[in-house]
Amino acid sequence: MEDLKSLVDLNNIPKHVAVIMDGNGRWAKQHGEARLFGHANGVDSVRAILKAARELGVEFLTLYAFSTENWNRPQEEVDGLMDLLVHSITNEMDELNENGVRLTAIGDIEGLPTNCASSLKDAILTTKNNKDITLILALNYSSKWEIRKAIQTIATKVSEGELTVDKITDELISEHLTTNEFPDPELMIRTSGEHRISNFLLWQLAYSEFYFTETHWPDFRRNDFFQAILAYQQRERRFGMVSEQINTNE
Ligand code: IPE
Ligand code: IPE
Ligand code: MG
């Protein structure tokens, strides 16, 4: 099959792409396998999408890997996911470094099992000077958790006289979120046919373009990513204005 990269307009690449990687379980079921088999194959998609994003010059790639709600899954699956995380990070370290990938994470990292948190922190430290692309793993993450934390911090600053209420702007709120060093995603992709946000980046996705596909995450590879970028490039981002205001040069 033709590589769709050549069709992508390199002058209109989103800086930040966020992905809800969904459908590992259904994919495994279709293949007559246990759910963890789907998660393991999903790691190959992560590798492929990271490479494709880097080739296009995407600067930030956020992947929703484990939500705070995912703790409610069967214990065996939760344990398997945590093991997979530790193994994947360890196995991928050299390649991340060779490819200039800075790994970082958003979410309640201290709430992860100790071995997960420590291998993650090691990887973050080891890759911190890499400059080609930033891979942000959303782990033990939920948007309501991060917004609640931000409100608590801001309220504390107000009550301690460090901040006045009139200083609470959109920018100040953004600065108190876990994503404070990243621009908001221009594009959010969700695989596997669900049309919901599932507690992901509620504030940051306020003006993002959404791309939904029926493809399950383990089948979502290079050309599927390019297809999502091509769809994004067909969109007109109006930010509340009218089309004529956007196309003033035409
Ligand atoms: C996404 O795939 C991976 C995680 C949430 C960790 P799912 O495990 O949600 O797969 P489905 O939605 O059950 O098919
Ligand atoms: C969202 O997927 C979380 C991740 C991809 C990590 P889920 O499969 O958990 O979402 P819901 O529960 O179907 O909304
Ligand atoms: Mg799911």
Describe the protein's topology.
Blueprint: E1 16-20, H1 24-30, H2 35-56, E2 60-67, H3 75-98, E3 101-106, H4 114-126, E4 133-141, H5 143-159, H6 170-175, E5 187-190, E6 209-212, H7 222-234, H8 243-246
Parallel strand pairs: 1-2, 1-5, 2-4, 3-4, 5-6
Helix pairs in contact: 1-2, 2-3, 3-4
Description:
The protein has helices spanning 24-30, 35-56, 75-98, 114-126, 143-159, 170-175, 222-234, 243-246, and strands at 16-20, 60-67, 101-106, 133-141, 187-190, 209-212. The chain has a domain at 16-142 and 187-232: Decaprenyl diphosphate synthase-like (Undecaprenyl pyrophosphate synthetase, 3-Layer(aba) Sandwich), CATH 3.40.1180.10. Helix 4 links the parallel strand 3 and strand 4. The chain has 250 residues and is of the alpha/beta class. 42% of the residues lie in helices and 14% in strands. Strands 3-4-2-1-5-6 form a 6-stranded parallel β-sheet, sandwiched between helices. It contains 8 helices and 6 strands; from the N terminus they run βααβαβαβααββαα. The model has no long low-confidence stretch (mean pLDDT 97). The structure holds 3-methylbut-3-enyl trihydrogen diphosphate (IPE) (2 copies) and magnesium ion. One 3-methylbut-3-enyl trihydrogen diphosphate binds at residues 20-22, 64-67, 69-70, 194, 196, 198.
CATH top-level class of the domain at 16-142 and 187-232: Alpha Beta
Largest sheet entry: 6 strands, parallel
> How do the strands of the widest beta sheet line up side by side?
3-4-2-1-5-6
Structural class: alpha/beta
Bound ligand species? 3-methylbut-3-enyl trihydrogen diphosphate, magnesium ion
Give the end-to-end Cα distance, rounded to a whole number of Å. 35 Å
C-alpha Rg, in Å? 19 Å
The residue fraction in helices comes out at: 40-55%
Mean pLDDT: 97
Query: Would you give the CATH topology of the domain at 16-142 and 187-232?
Result: Undecaprenyl pyrophosphate synthetase
Assembly type of the chains comes to: single chain
Q: What is the percentage of strand-forming residues?
A: 5-15%
The CATH superfamily of the domain at 16-142 and 187-232 turns out to be: Decaprenyl diphosphate synthase-like
Mass-distribution shape: globular
SSE string, helix = H, strand = E? EHHEHEHEHHEEHH
**CATH architecture classification of the domain at 16-142 and 187-232:** 3-Layer(aba) Sandwich
